[in-house]
């Protein structure tokens, strides 16, 4: 069994990778714990997340070698070989993400893209027209609105949930999937740090090389 040595070269991440990584983390935490779903703050954090993800994807083409997509291509075959390597107690060095980590990165980016696209579509959906400003609705319309409000009130009292559109369902499903991927990602980082002896989290902090 190969044991990690103190002379192992440290992982190096450039400032743009660190900036985009922690900005994405902050945006996810903000919209999960601080902003109200559907609020303007929630939407603007989503736009910031979209811009940050776009920057990271661009950096994957023009950035330094270890940040480029070519340094960690998604490969299920290589990921399976990496699992066999772990089971055999072997360890090899990777200039960027290891094969399992690479699959996780692309999975998280893909789910983030779904969240961003569905969120933007929901935010830009036109509001239901309510007639001319200041004009009283026709009697039939007023009766219908009153009846709908009454039915909605009864539904809330009875514990019934509002029917959600397909965009909302896809958005919420993707968000829940993202949380699962994040937990798996954290578990993978902890496992790899213990297995390899590398200070993986410290290497991603600002000022670290």
From TrEMBL:
Record field: compositional bias (Basic and acidic residues): 143-159
Localization: Cell membrane
Principal place of residence: membrane
Keywords (A to Z) from UniProt: Cell membrane, Membrane, Transmembrane, Transmembrane helix
Transmembrane segments: 19-35, 41-62, 100-123, 173-191
UniProt region (Disordered), positions on chain: 127-166
Membrane topology of this protein: Multi-pass membrane protein
Record bears the keyword Transmembrane: yes
One GO term (biological process): respiratory electron transport chain
The keyword Glycoprotein appears for this protein: no
InterPro entries reported in the protein's UniProt record: Cyt_b561_bac/Ni-Hgenase, Di-haem_cyt_TM, Hydrogenase_cytochrome
GO cellular component, as recorded: plasma membrane
Compositionally skewed regions (Low complexity) per UniProt: 127-142
SUPFAM superfamilies the record matches: Transmembrane di-heme cytochromes
Gene Ontology molecular function terms on file: electron transfer activity; heme binding
Residue stretches making up the Cytochrome b561 bacterial/Ni-hydrogenase domain: 12-207
Pfam families found in the cross-reference section: Ni_hydr_CYTB
Record protein name field: Cytochrome B561
Organism of origin: Caulobacter segnis (strain ATCC 21756 / DSM 7131 / JCM 7823 / NBRC 15250 / LMG 17158 / TK0059) (Mycoplana segnis)
Lineage: Bacteria, Pseudomonadati, Pseudomonadota, Alphaproteobacteria, Caulobacterales
């Amino acid at each position: 069994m190969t044991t990690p040595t103190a002379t192992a070269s440290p992982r190096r991440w450039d400032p743009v990778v660190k900036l985009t990584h922690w900005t994405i983390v902050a945006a996810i935490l903000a919209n999960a714990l601080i902003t109200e779903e559907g609020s303007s703050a929630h939407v603007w954090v989503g736009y910031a997340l979209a811009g940050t993800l776009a920057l990271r994807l661009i950096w994957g083409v023009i950035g330094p070698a270890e940040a480029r997509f070519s340094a960690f291509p998604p490969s299920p075959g290589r990921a399976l070989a990496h699992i066999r390597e772990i089971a055999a107690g072997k360890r090899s060095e990777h200039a960027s993400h290891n094969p399992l980590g690479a699959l996780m990165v692309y999975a998280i980016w893909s789910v983030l893209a779904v969240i961003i696209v569905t969120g933007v579509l929901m935010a830009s959906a036109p509001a239901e027209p309510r007639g001319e400003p200041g004009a009283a609705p026709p009697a039939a319309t007023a009766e219908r609105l009153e009846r709908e409000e009454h039915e909605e009130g009864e539904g809330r009292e009875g514990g019934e949930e509002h029917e959600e559109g397909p965009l909302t369902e896809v958005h919420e499903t993707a968000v829940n999937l993202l949380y699962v991927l994040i937990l798996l990602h954290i578990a993978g980082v902890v496992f790899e740090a213990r297995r390899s002896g590398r200070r993986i989290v410290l290497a991603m902090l600002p000022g670290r090389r």
